[in-house]
């Protein structure tokens, strides 16, 4: 190895070592949701919607009242890929019919490297495959945000990160042989920004937007 190549390699290692990975997740809200989950066990053959606040805020059971399978909401506001991975035992032990996982934006808010997020997705998928092999896995794209409407500093400069994350999630889903669903076209404009008519705060969806979401899943035969 030449001195130049060796120097570049050492520089890259040094740079990688300076990246701070915030893997925290178990705040007070997470803990109280987990307590709630422990007292409301998942029935067998359930359809589970798994994710963060964007998942939690949906009335999935009402929107899918005609389902012949139980519909369960396992969203936790503020959750990230580390938190979802940490609570997968409850999910896989229930042997669900299907899991719809949508996550990502909270990872972007803390600027986690995409490789870290994708690796957590991969670990989630493989855990499902290993412990509940009959479960159908659907990975949904992370939604964009509208930074003109957001107030928190940690949201600024993050929307540009979403398309690259989704590309990597899609590639990973293909590698793992699971279904990837791109829901971004439902809610974003031509610039990849969450449309104002679908959000109140630039991040979360209005209640009525979930009707479009469910109709899309049904039209595309994902539900």
Automatic annotation (TrEMBL):
Organism in which the protein naturally occurs: Pedobacter chitinilyticus
A GO MF label: phosphatidylcholine lysophospholipase activity
The organism's place on the tree of life at top rank: Bacteria
Pfam name, any one: Lipase_GDSL_2
Record protein name field: GDSL family lipase
Domain SGNH hydrolase-type esterase: 49-210
Lineage, opening ranks: Bacteria, Pseudomonadati, Bacteroidota, Sphingobacteriia, Sphingobacteriales
